[in-house]
Amino acid sequence: MTRVFVAAGSNVDAERNLRLASHELVKTFGNVQFSPAYQNVAAGFEGDDFINFVAAFDTELPVRAVVAELQRIEGLCGRERHAPKWAPRSMDLDILLFGDMVCDEPGLVLPRPDLLRRAYMLGPMADVGGDVVHPLERRTMSELWERFDRDGHPLTRIELSLGAQ
Predict the structure, then answer these.
(1) Residues facing residue 32 across a β-bridge
(2) What class has domain 2-158?
């Protein structure tokens, strides 16, 4: 079994889409642990605030099969595959860590580089996997979050029921 951490984010009908995505994650992968949800300003473009969380689960599926399932869930939430990168999103599901896998292939870079640069990824990751050691940095997520400059991109914790329909 491989422990997988996935970042989820939306700024288009965000609460509905995130609840749908979390329900589908549970339906697809079984026992899923969710971080709290956080609201934050859009990064890289002007737009509505995003809501983000991180989900953690164990799977025996290979990484490309997990990517395919995440893309299927994005589609259920209205995500178009070829939408611009820095634009509003109905759903964005990104693998942050796939066990201790390190790879740099077309369409798949692990660990996800944004994990160390984006508060909305690292903060919830530390909530749900604080003791997990980053495979390249050799520090725990809690340690990395403690050292992170949070002033430039503040997060606001919000209540959002995840995992249930």
Answers:
(1) none
(2) alpha beta
